[in-house]
Amino acid sequence: MDSGLRNYLVVTGGYWAFTVTDGAIRMLVVLYFHQLGYSPFEVAMLFLFYEFFGIVTNLVGGWLGARIGLNLTMHIGMALQVVALLLLTVPDAWLSVAYVMAAQALSGIAKDLNKMSAKASVKTLAGGGGESTLFRYVAVLTGSKNALKGVGFFVGAGLLDVVGFRAALAILAGLLFVVLLVTMALLPRGVGKMKSKPKFTQVFSKRSEINWLSAARFFLFGSRDVWFVVGLPVFLYSVLGWSFTEVGAFFALWVMGYGMVQAAAPRLIRRKGRGRGPGGATAQRWAVVLGVLPVAIALALAQGWNPGAVLIIGLVLFGGVFAINSALHSYLILAYSDFDKVAMNVGFYYMANAGGRLAGTVLSGWVYQTHGLEGCLWWSAAFVFAAALLSLKLPDVPAATPAAADPHRA
Known about the structure:
By secondary structure, the chain is an all-alpha fold. It has 14 helices and no strands. It has one domain (3-190, 202-391): Up-down Bundle (Growth Hormone, Chain: A), CATH 1.20.1250.
């Protein structure tokens, strides 16, 4: 097996394992602390540092990965997640808002170190395979990751029902620690490491397409999390009367379907010319399509239609279109980046992603508490249309030319 493909598979496997724990811990925290009597806004605040430190981590992480290697930053992220999981196994009396926020901050750092490292590694490991190959590699990594995040939602909710909050966290920490040891043994050193030591000021992108795409990414992910993080699971549990396992299973199936569409995005999107990936115009069109969906769901709920049916159908459609939008963005950030700057550009881009998630998370709790789920949906629509407007500035990706393999490729 080609060494680049082998390393890509190892990175993907490690990313999968981490993602299961990330989805599980999110579902565990939302459901367990809602059960303890926390308000929707208080539950949202538990994720405040998770998202805030994701912004900081992506800003610093890309620069750090370029200096010490992406495999090392990925392993640091896994180790921090093990610690974050174990920190929440303490007795209930210790689980103050401040303590949980601190543990979630560590988990946020871990998640974004791991994600940035895995995504940036794809550009390096894909080598000179061309834009079409790069799009397939990114789509498979991102789509499979989201399918496994859905598994994590189900695992977290199921473990909460079966073994309880603390035992679930301990099981997840033990499994991730084993994966950490395996990937450390299999991956070579120095993946994505630059020959020259980049200055920290190089983190801030000077290329307009990177900046516009990052701004669009902020609003795209804010549009999802403004109703997905707190409003939707609390609505399903407290208004529709679903059990923890039912909520977790629903989210699991949704995210797994979302991931499957994301992985299939290269086959679903028409591209001009062989070897070429999609460009800015494609991102614009799919953003507009996405913006229509939360408007339609909100109007259907306002008309008094069956909320269970409306949400299930609406979420299926929203998830599919959102998956294509996300896959397009994940490809474009790599297509717009040079080999030697990919880690820093991806870090900058995911800083914007984390900023959108932070805004969406805070708004999800506040808007749901003040205006209900319909209010969350209208905010979601506004965020999507903002992303569509920003996408007007995105250029096309030039046709691929035969390229030499990246000198840093392992």
